[in-house]
Design goal:
Elements (H helix, E strand, L loop, with lengths): L23 H7 L5 E3 L2 E3 L14 H14 L5 H11 L15
Antiparallel strand pairs: 1-2
Length: 102
């Protein structure tokens, strides 16, 4: 059996940016109200996690949505991309999937 590869210890404070929508499931995965020790993992240090929505200009959303529109190769994305663009008042141009990798 090979030894477990140990990753570097994170430095605090840390900040990350993500495109993932942080919903109730994600928040519940982070919540732990009590100290614990299970299978050799001891949890006694407390962390504060702050989730902040980053507002960006409409042009940024337009560029991202257009890129997804152009490069998508999944017909399930068609209606979802149109609906998200409507939320921002954006009209997608060109044919769906016209720049997808073939």
């Amino acid at each position: 059996m090979t030894a477990k590869k140990e990753m570097g210890k994170p430095e605090y404070p840390m900040s990350i940016e993500t495109f993932r929508n942080i919903g109730s499931y994600d928040l519940n995965q982070l919540r732990q109200y009590d100290i614990s020790c299970f299978n050799g993992i001891v949890r006694v240090v407390k962390y504060r996690v702050t989730v902040e929505k980053i507002e960006e200009p409409k042009e940024v959303y337009t560029e991202r949505l257009q890129k997804l529109w152009d490069e998508s190769d999944n017909y399930h994305d068609y209606e979802s991309l149109i609906n998200k663009a409507k939320q921002f008042g954006i009209e997608l141009t060109g044919m769906f999937g016209s720049k997808r990798k073939k």
